[in-house]
Every structure is written in structure tokens, then in C-alpha cells.
Prior knowledge:
Blueprint: H1 5-29, H2 33-59, H3 68-78, H4 99-122, H5 129-150
Helix pairs in contact: 1-2, 1-4, 2-5, 4-5
Amino acid sequence: MAINxxxxxxxxxxxxxxxxxxxxKAYEYSNQDKEKETFLKLAKMEREHLKFFTxxxxxxxxxxxxxxxxxDSYIKEHFPSNxxxxxxSKKIGxxxxxxxxxxxxxIDREKDAVEYYLKLSRNVSDIDxxxxxxxxxxxxxxESHIEFLKELL
Length: 153
């Protein structure tokens, strides 16, 4: 089974939603203005990515869309990842007890996201060139998040 464009964009939307949640929680946890500003900016960037992926999903035409369970199974099998998930934001204040830990964790998740998107983009069966180009732009933005976060360490 190869991932198609609709599935790619649905998966990406889920990841971006979890990233938003994580950065909003980090914003609430932080008490330094520069850190708060950074987390707020990252949440805003993730919202823009979410809008993009939602638009791309609507544009993608696919008559062979798989069920969520099939997609989840395929992803877990072929693309194991620790990217932002439902439990990520719950770690703030528990496992991630200070802003440095939060930033380091976020850097690792952004690196995972870049790798994940690269792998997925290579395995999409029906993505058009414009969507693929836009996805590459998102990958570059995710890479810029890493640099942005590193400035705080």
C-alpha cells in the first residue's frame, strides 16, 4: 500500500494540530517574554501549516481513500515516529520540567517531523507537482523552526 496525497495531508493535519497544542502549552508554562513570544510564533506557524494541509487535502482527488485504521497501521509499520502526538503537551511540567527541556524536546520533534515528511513525500502515489513543491516548502519551514528554537538554548 502506498500513501496517497489525501492521506498524506490528513496525517500532516493531525501532526500540526498536536504541534499547536504543544507550543500553546509551552507558552502557558514559560515565564520569560522571549520564550513566550517564540512559542506563540511557533504555534502560529503550525496553524498556517494546518491551513495549508487542509487546503491541499481538499484539492487532492482520490477515489481509493483508505480508512483511518489502514492509514494508521501503515504509518506505524513504515514510519515509526515520536513526533507530536496526543500525549506530547501533557509532558510539559511533568517530564519536561523547564523551558530548556521543552525547547530541546521541541527541536527533536521538529527534526522528526522533517524526516517524517520527507519519507512520506517519497511514498505518495498521486501527489501533483504543485502540492509536492508546497510540501517541500513546509519541510524547509519545519527546518527553520529547528534553527529558531536553537537560538533559545
